[in-house]
Structure formats: structure tokens, C-alpha cells
């Protein structure tokens, strides 16, 4: 009997998936099939590659400054605010260079083809490359070109990929959505105060372009209406609506619900809290999972 887990997208809220998987493993319900979207693809891919410990260590080590250093701002053309090469390098350091076909578990990362809007399941090729395509949030990350296709975040078409788990042979599917809370905006990291006068701002753009762009995107004070705040707010609305639609059309056997929405999309420095929330939420549904597993085993 194969247990599948569909790990949803939601930025920094995705660290909760580590706590979910830890709790399932400890209870004897380690998933055999994993499908992940966006951050779900990162955590799910690390689990499938037997590198969950390493990813957890990495996640817990991130503070705001470390998280900010991973954001290589895009100062040219390319379709996103962040290039993404630093994150790719960091993930490669954590997970290593792995092919999906060599993984210990069945795995697929979900992405979206920009030109057609088609949902794309990445179940072969380079693991970190598949993760990178899956978490290419529109307007945040530069899209990925793969096999002559331009790919963006899988959350646009399938934020909690239950259907992919079933297609890969899972008998019981556990879904882990990561809904946003009512006030989770684009908080990310402290940005040095911007110059106030117009000419000083223009001079700063030439002398320290990354700091200038960071100020323009993320603001210098809390609750500033910035480019990132508007983009992330719109994405949160889109992802929440799409999650409801997909879970209604592809219902899982068990859904892990939580209060993870209080963590903002870009608050990657809150891994400790997110992992704890994921673990606590999963403990509440263990009796339900146990009953399903026993029922399926008895009927097999």
C-alpha cells in the first residue's frame, strides 16, 4: 500500500512541510509517493532524495540577513525581480546533484507552462532544476526555460498536486495546503533606509543599485505599499482561490490544515515556527490516516 503526499506551495510557509514529513515518518506513515508545488517541490524533493535532515538544518539556519543574501536581484531584463541563481546554488549544496529517476521515492515537481497555461509534471531530469521551475513565482522569480518551454510556478495551475500523487500510484493521498492569512504580505528583510531627496535617490541607483532596487521593491518601513507587496498580495489571492478549486475537483483522502497563514510568503527566517506548526497539525490527523491505512490493507 502506497501513501502519497501532495505538498502545496506558499513560499516560506512551506517550511511547515518539514514538520509534516517528520511527524508522518515517526508515526510509521512515511510517504512512498511525493508531488510538490513550489516550496512543496523543494521540501518534497529533499525528502525523496533522503536529504530532509540537511534541508531542515539549512532552513533553521536562515535569519533575515541570510535570506536576503540569497535574493540576487535582477537588474536587467528577464521577467522577474530575482534571478534565482543563488538559491539554486544553495539547494545544490544541500541536496547535491541528483537525477529524479535515481530518487528513493517517486517524485514529481509541478510547474506551469507560460505560453499555454498547461500544467507540467517534472518527473525526470535534474532535481534542483525541476525545483527551480516549480517555484518560479510570477513577477518574483525569472522564469525557467526547459525543453523549449518557459516555465513558471506550478501553484498557478495546481497548488496542491493531489492528482499527480494518484497518477504515480498512491492509494492514500495526504494533502498539505498552505493558505495565506489575512495580513501576510511581502515582509522579507530589513532594507537600509533610502535617501529622501530625488537627486540622492538617483545617485544611489548608480552607486548601490541592489540596495536602491531593494528599497523600491520592499520599502523602508512596515506596511509600505510596494511593488513586492502588491505582487505578493495578488499571488496570495490567486493561490488561495486556485487551491480551493483544485481540492474540490481532486479531493485527497486526508487534508492537513493549520494556522500557517500567519507566516508571510517571504518570511523564510521563521522556519522554526513553521516546522512546529506543520508537526502539530499533522499529529491531529494521525488517527484519520491510521484508519485509512488499516481499511485499505484489510480490503486489499
Residue stretches low in confidence (pLDDT < 50, at least 5 long) are: 184-196, 202-206
Largest sheet: 8 strands, mixed
Overall 3D geometry? globular
Q: How many strands? A: 10
Q: Which percent range describes the beta-strand content?
A: 5-15%
| Separate helix tally | 11
Gap from first CA to last CA: 9 Å
- N-to-C order of helices and strands: EHEHHHEHEEHEEEHEHHHEH
Structural class, by secondary structure, is: alpha/beta
Q: Residue share in helices?
A: 40-55%
Radius of gyration: 19 Å
Mean pLDDT: 87
Topology, element by element:
Blueprint: E1 3-7, H1 16-26, E2 33-37, H2 39-48, H3 52-61, H4 64-69, E3 80-82, H5 85-95, E4 106-113, E5 119-122, H6 127-134, E6 139-141, E7 144-146, E8 149-153, H7 162-167, E9 172-176, H8 198-207, H9 209-218, H10 227-249, E10 254-255, H11 271-299
Parallel strand pairs: 1-2, 1-9, 2-4, 3-6, 9-10
Antiparallel strand pairs: 4-5, 4-8, 7-8
Helix pairs in contact: 1-11, 2-3, 2-6, 8-9
Question: What would your notes on this structure say?
Answer:
This protein is of the alpha/beta class and 300 residues long. The chain is built from 11 helices and 10 strands. It has helices at 16-26, 39-48, 52-61, 64-69, 85-95, 127-134, 162-167, 198-207, 209-218, 227-249, 271-299; strands at residues 3-7, 33-37, 80-82, 106-113, 119-122, 139-141, 144-146, 149-153, 172-176, 254-255.
